[in-house]
Specification:
This protein is mainly α. The chain has one domain: Glycosyltransferase, CATH 1.50.10. The protein is built from nine helices and six strands; from the N terminus they run αααββββααββαααα.
């Protein structure tokens, strides 16, 4: 009986200790994807001008695209497309960084606020829903039904919130970044909605088209755009959880990139339908070059060269 009481006291003490750690640091978050394959990478902090989501042109203050009454970009005249909203927020923020024009920052925050207004919270994570059906590759037989979610949108929203926090210091964006990053910790089956999963070979994936009951499409460009957000978040706080997700994401690419390559031809957009797109092939090459800059890993440079030599 005394032994039982002693064990109980030890367990209670442990719970209290870790509870205190959580309250003090806010970092006692279980990484749900611990079963995924993990390689170590050197993560290189890039200068702002060399980061993903920097743009050659300034964002249009008089947009030539559909917007709502406040100026937030619309898709199809009526819907909010999370990737488009996040991208416009990032472009306005990049324009602010280049010009210090307050109007650009105001527009960036306007788009960030729209994402937060539309968010869905599940467990301790923010998700940004697509509220319209979408035919993947324009094929009605591949229609994904609303609401659905996207790891690409999660990553780009994460980049936007992280960068806005760096620029403004507003705690709201720090908390939004934290909650958005949490979505990368819950693979499919451990949360609904979902945007990441671990495949049968034990590799971690960021899924662009994540719907209820849908099989993963495994889109390369969307995967990497999602990964960029984790990179942004890691540079913000250098916490172990974001480094782990980032390295597991890079490990998956190192393993699967040959399956997206089509020697002597345009690379595959995805692994489910094996569609090819010349424009996305160019995107793949640019993304692989960016991964090389972010890691210094020669493998990504070699694959960028291979994709380029296959078709350019």
């Amino acid at each position: 009986m005394k032994l039982k009481n002693k064990i109980t006291k030890i367990l209670i003490s442990g719970i209290i200790f870790f509870g205190i750690i959580f309250l003090v640091t806010g970092k006692f978050t279980p990484l749900k994807s611990t079963s995924a394959h993990h390689d170590e990478f050197n993560i290189i902090p890039l200068d702002t001008k060399d980061m993903p989501f920097t743009f050659n042109d300034l964002a249009p203050l008089k947009p030539d695209y559909p917007t709502d009454e406040k100026g937030v970009i619309l898709y199809g005249q009526q819907y909010y497309h999370p990737v488009e909203v996040a991208q416009m927020g990032l472009q306005f923020l990049d324009s602010f960084n280049k010009t210090s024009n307050q109007e650009y920052l105001n527009r960036s925050e306007l788009h960030a606020q729209k994402l937060l207004e539309k968010k869905v919270e599940s467990k301790d994570a923010f998700y940004f829903p697509y509220e319209f059906d979408f035919a993947i590759h324009g094929n009605k037989n591949t229609m994904i039904k609303a609401p659905w979610y996207s790891g690409m949108a999660q990553g780009e929203a994460l980049s936007l919130f992280t960068r806005l926090y760096k620029v403004t210091g507003k705690k709201e964006y720090q908390e939004a970044a934290k909650k958005t990053f949490q979505s990368f910790l819950y693979p499919r089956g451990e949360n609904q909605p979902w945007t990441v999963f671990v495949d049968d070979n034990g590799f971690y994936w960021i899924e662009e088209y994540a719907g209820k009951g849908e099989d993963p499409v495994q889109v390369l460009n969307g995967y990497i755009f999602g990964l960029y957000g984790v990179y942004d978040y890691y540079l913000l706080n250098k916490d172990p959880a974001s480094k782990e997700v980032l390295e597991k994401s890079l490990a998956t690419l190192r393993h699967y990139l040959p399956e997206f390559r089509s020697p002597g031809n345009i690379s595959f957009y995805d692994l489910k339908y094996k569609r090819r797109s010349e424009s996305y092939h160019k995107t793949h090459i640019a993304q692989l070059k960016m991964l090389y800059k972010m890691t210094g890993d020669d493998y990504f440079k070699t694959m960028a060269d291979n994709f380029y030599n296959d078709h350019h």
